[in-house]
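quick one before i forget lol
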Amino acid sequence: MDTHRLKYFLRIAEERSITRAAALLGIAQPALSRQLQLLEDDLGVTLFTRTRRGVELTEAGERLRASTAGPLRQLELAVQYAGTPLARLDRTLRLGLPETTVDLLAAPLLTSLTTVFPEATFSVTVGSTDQLVEAMLKAAVDVALINPVPDERVFYRELLAEQLFLIGGPETSLESTRAVAFADVVALPLVVPRSSSGVGVALQNAALRAKVTFSHRTTTDSVAVMKNVIEAGIAFGILPRSACSREIDDGRLRFAPIADTARSQRIGVAATEQLDLPREVSVKIGDTIREEVTVLIKSGAWSADLIAASAWNPMRG
């Protein structure tokens, strides 16, 4: 099967529009439609249904997307970087990830990085923004995803913003279609992250602006502990949906939007001036993180808004 047709199919699936996909691919729309028809003829299935806004994947199309997107991307990366200095890098690359991103991002990110850096080994540290910043300053982590911090020693490039939701146990009455007023949220028994940045501070600041009292029953530096406490019915939590998508899908947790004003957290790529990686390596790690996050957001797996890319150069030399 022609891999170009698979590439075309995946771009149409991402854009949900043959017209937009054709423009981005730089080919005429009739030619792209013809390639799609040939792919459907080869497979003997219909991959898309037409809608007023564009196209939607059929069940067969969704199965094809899920089974081919990752392998095709890895093949393209392997061909692109074979024989480059990046492919010959032989050292440990130390990454830092917030616990809220691990379920969605860890596996696809490591898969892509091992393709770009086939001779490298990888060490992944999971923690809060405070913990990851400290690890970077101690040279225990090279590049990390963190919340914004007012620290001039940290080079930071914004990546995404994701909405925060009220999370409750399976016995609660929370509904994804019914928002809860912020004043009612802060009146609940809450378990919150123990950190000087991120969700906990955002909630405290929001409470000050709304002139409501914010209190909590439990603090912890572990998202796993938060989810266990919430599932047990001891407290509610405020987290991005990405942090508990598995538990929500399994019916172990429920969620609801928070009304009044948007509640969100921002995440970006960060490093420090102590970073001893070659410039092209650090830039490629940051670019690969953005590429994988973009794929997850466009596929709908990560409910977040991608922030426009800005220059990020943590190297002085």
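fyi The chain is about 45% helix and 20% strand.
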